[in-house]
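[job 4417] fold queue: 2 targets
>>> target A
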Amino acid sequence: MKVMVKVLWSLPLGVILLTAILAYTPTLAQLSNYNPQGLKATTLEEVLALPDEEIDLATAILILCKGWDASVDVVACLEEIEMMALELEVGISPRDDPEKIVVGLINYYLFEEKSYSSVLPSD
């Protein structure tokens, strides 16, 4: 479990954002109505008790990260993800193909505009 949490914590918020978006919505334009019970979860036990469709992937990953590093501020990270989603929402329409246009737009935003980069493997 700790190894999994360590690996997850090494992921930048940008990867969490991309994963959450692609797992739950075909486009960012639909995020304004996104409000699963998983957003209210504060422990891994609460997340695991939810039906799959109610789990918020970003919240779940951040809760796991907090188990590894108590300094992780889940609320602040979720707020940062929300701000990033709002910035991206402007350039995406509900008609956009998520596998072509949306992924490219998100990649450009994360790696070019926000300067995210891959994490080097560590022990």
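>>> target B
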Amino acid sequence: LYKFKIGGKKKKKKKKKKDNKEAENSEQNEQNENKHNNVTKTDEIIYNESLVHEMALNSYSNSNWPFFKWTDSESNCLCLINNQIYIYKDNNFNVVSDKLKLEHIEFFEVSPEQYITESGENNNGNPNKRKVFLATYERGTKGNSSVFKIFNLDNLSKHIYSKNFFNSDEIKLKWNKNGTSLLLQIHTQVDKEKQSYYGSSNLYFIDTIKLKDVNIMTNKGLIYDTIWSYNQNKFYVCKGEIPADIVLHDKNGNIIHSYGKHKFNTLKLNYNEKLLLTGGFGNLSGDISIWNTINKKEITKTKSSCAVICEFFNDDKHFLTATTHPRLRVDNNIKIYKYNGLIVSKLDFDELYNVIILPFNKIKSQSIDISINPNSDLQKYINKQLGIDSKKVGIYKAPGSTAKTSLNGLGIMARPPKPTLPPGCNFVVEEKTSKKKKKKK
């Protein structure tokens, strides 16, 4: 049984009784600390708001988290209960303003709000008229196809867009900042064409204004990562077979630039979008490259082996990688890098479960010099930090061996040619004794 609470109070746990002397000493120490910190001790932590709504559920799935989903203006709250999406307005949970019933619905997502003028165009300066979309996914059963639908939140009687899929085990949605487009990623666990052990993927770019879609995944392979730009309507995709293609698309789904093929599966952008981080984590070696998004050139390379988490800091100059538990039960750590690839700090932990960076609006970002070019001396220092020897490893030669090599340069002496025989036969030289025995017979 799971409970979801909005607001409320949280009581502290009661401490065990101590001896009189220990209790007096601890109270004096706490009073001194409270005086020093100007804090008054209370029995419970009181929030500004009281409990607004409480609901009990018999089941829970990660795809429906968070359970309550608000629009950007917080005027509408939506939740999914027993194949029905309930909508509450103005945080009044006593009255259901609207609801949408769909059989076999698995999850839903709410788009960012669009500001619409009377002519139907986007207008960020008009806060009175807002447009919100509701995206739903229904899993197919008994030979029926799975269905993805988009509704207008103001009119749930009929969907404005739908797409059917016959093979879909997992689905992911990513809206752009304005809510005018979304990326629909579909994944199947089993590839029927038997081209990949990890299944197959597909990616669609959907325009919610024109109600058109574009198939981004034109070649075979998987979709490893997708990321929208924060300030502009363009997105990056890491797709295909390893080494994967890293491609930049515009707001219409057209290819703008290709960064080539690399052994990467992770994409990250800093807040001002001047730097693109590409990394190969998980089952890859942990290589990291930093790219200049203006001239599309690689700035530097570094590495973070066994990393699970990778995020940019809010100052746009640093990023971190973390090895967490239980993905890896040893060597849990946090590494902090500068954007030029240098390791600034490393923190070790016995068990590290997660790392979260404050949102972008908490700290003002600083401007950085993106005119930096690849520096060979700096790269040598980075390799020294990582313990990587930049010298090329030659062919191994055993002690005492001669300098003679074969024609193919592999260090193996060439063997004399054997006489031509039928397949499967080996040339055997008969001994003299065997020849004499044959003559006597």
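[job 4417] complete. Note on B: The chain is about 10% helix and 35% strand.
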